[in-house]
Automatic annotation (TrEMBL):
Pfam families: DegT_DnrJ_EryC1. One of its GO terms (molecular function) is pyridoxal phosphate binding. It comes from Yoonia ponticola. The keyword Ribosomal protein does not apply. Keywords: Pyridoxal phosphate. InterPro entries: DegT/StrS_aminotransferase, PyrdxlP-dep_Trfase, PyrdxlP-dep_Trfase_major. Belongs to the DegT/DnrJ/EryC1 family. The modification N6-(pyridoxal phosphate)lysine is found at K186. The active site is at K186 (proton acceptor). This is dTDP-4-amino-4,6-dideoxygalactose transaminase. Transmembrane segments: none annotated. Gene3D superfamilies: Type I PLP-dependent aspartate aminotransferase-like (Major domain). GO terms for biological process: polysaccharide biosynthetic process.
Length: 392
């Protein structure tokens, strides 16, 4: 039997973090605004430089970053925000949290936003959040052309896209604001945390104040200070700050990011090549402008009966491999019909059909190619078994 690697185990935090964590613990300096040179401020400067953005603001999660983005855009209560129907429940939740109304856009079987549905719904919305779900980049050329023409602001949810490029430009820097996550299952792991990037001084000033830079703590951000004078005491303080320990865990990982991205892509493309050799499995190709940074693989089951799908699921389970089919696992937070907090969701047949055939398997960057072979072997054996059985 194939010996599978552990797919859920995190990578160790670089040893370089330890000295800094010890220093912080010895000084008790956990609050970012105790000093101007706090690890949080240093992380913001390093992250902005890495991405090629003017400003960055580190916060408590990517969800908090999305919420603050909507608030910083000044959207009124009940403003409509277009989001992809294939995303994580945190995304519609951040829209609800900001007192806005999510409008769901169809996604195709390549996991990306369907541009026809996007164009049809755009005139009825006030802002757009593009979730590059599982790091699959939607067509940013088409989206930016439509949104620029309509004057509609774009927030990129790049939680799972750190390291992805589009025409050589970093994902998260194409829209007005980009939001990233430091939750444990993302490229940089602080357990929890998030960061937003933008080139807009006014937007970042508002987000900084609302993140909890009370009184004159905004002076500790190296940002144009004029907008702060305007917004001082005019905005609520939501206290969504990042603490210094979390920043100390992230900073040494940032140096390892490029290697992690290369290893993750190598692993993904290797397994994709193997799966695409089977007539019943299909890994959608990246878009031409896109260079991806995957830490998991998604593939579709094609031309399979319900019985074959069930047999495939059962086989992988017996082999000890955790394959999630987005639309078939109970309570999956990425299946829009489970977002009951929205009230009634519209019927989105294209996205629904994709969710019923799309499989999700973690593929961490730390795996060797031999370990990747073991994962692919289990998947191919399971689909071969499932399709042969039902055909007989
Ligand atoms: C993880 C994730 C989020 C939420 O990030 P948090 O930091 O946990 O709030 C949002 N969107 C996508 C696409 C994600 O993958």
């Amino acid at each position: 039997m194939t010996v599978l690697p552990n797919l859920t185990q995190a990578e160790p935090i670089p040893a370089a973090a330890m000295a800094e964590v010890t220093r912080i613990l010895e000084t008790g300096d956990l609050f970012r605004y105790t000093s101007e040179q706090s690890p949080v401020a240093l992380l913001e400067a390093e992250f902005a430089a890495k991405l090629g953005s003017t400003y960055a603001l580190a916060v408590s999660s990517c969800s908090a970053a999305l919420f603050l983005s909507l608030k910083a855009l000044g959207l009124p209560r009940d403003a409509r925000v277009l989001i992809p129907a294939f995303t994580f429940a945190a995304v519609p939740s951040s829209v609800v949290h900001a007192d806005c109304v999510p409008v769901l856009c169809e996604c195709g079987d390549n996991y990306r936003i369907n541009i026809d549905d996007f164009a049809a719904k755009l005139p009825s919305v006030d802002a757009v959040i593009i979730s590059h779900m599982r790091g699959h980049t939607s067509d940013m050329d088409a989206i930016m052309a439509l949104c620029d023409a309509a004057g509609t602001p774009v927030i990129e949810d790049a939680a799972h896209s750190l390291g992805t490029t589009w025409h050589g430009r970093n994902i998260g820097t194409i829209g007005k604001i980009g939001c990233f996550s430091f939750q444990s299952y993302k490229m940089l792991n602080a357990g929890e945390g998030g960061i937003m990037v933008t080139d807009d001084a006014e937007l970042v000033a508002k987000a900084i104040i609302m993140s909890g830079a009370y009184e004159h703590n905004w002076r500790k951000h190296p940002v144009l200070h004029t907008p702060f004078e305007t917004w001082q005491n005019q905005l609520p303080l939501y206290n969504l700050r990042l603490n210094t320990l979390s920043a100390a865990l992230i900073r040494p990982q940032l140096a390892a990011l490029d290697q992690r991205v290369r290893d993750g892509r190598r692993n993904h493309d290797h397994v994709a090549g193997l799966l695409n050799g089977h007539p019943h499995l299909q890994v959608p190709a990246p878009l031409d402008a896109e260079v991806r940074a995957p830490d998991s693989i998604q593939f579709n089951m094609v031309n399979m009966t319900e019985a074959q799908v069930e047999a495939f699921q059962a086989s992988t389970k017996v082999a000890g491999l955790n394959v999630q089919i987005f639309g078939r696992s109970a309570d999956n937070a990425r299946a829009f019909w489970n977002w009951n907090f929205l009230g009634e969701t519209p019927d989105l047949p294209m996205t629904r059909a994709m969710l019923m055939i799309a499989c999700d398997v973690r593929l961490p960057a730390r795996l060797t190619l031999m370990e990747c072979d073991a994962v692919a072997e289990v998947l191919i054996a399971a689909v071969t078994h499932a399709t042969a059985k039902a055909a007989a």
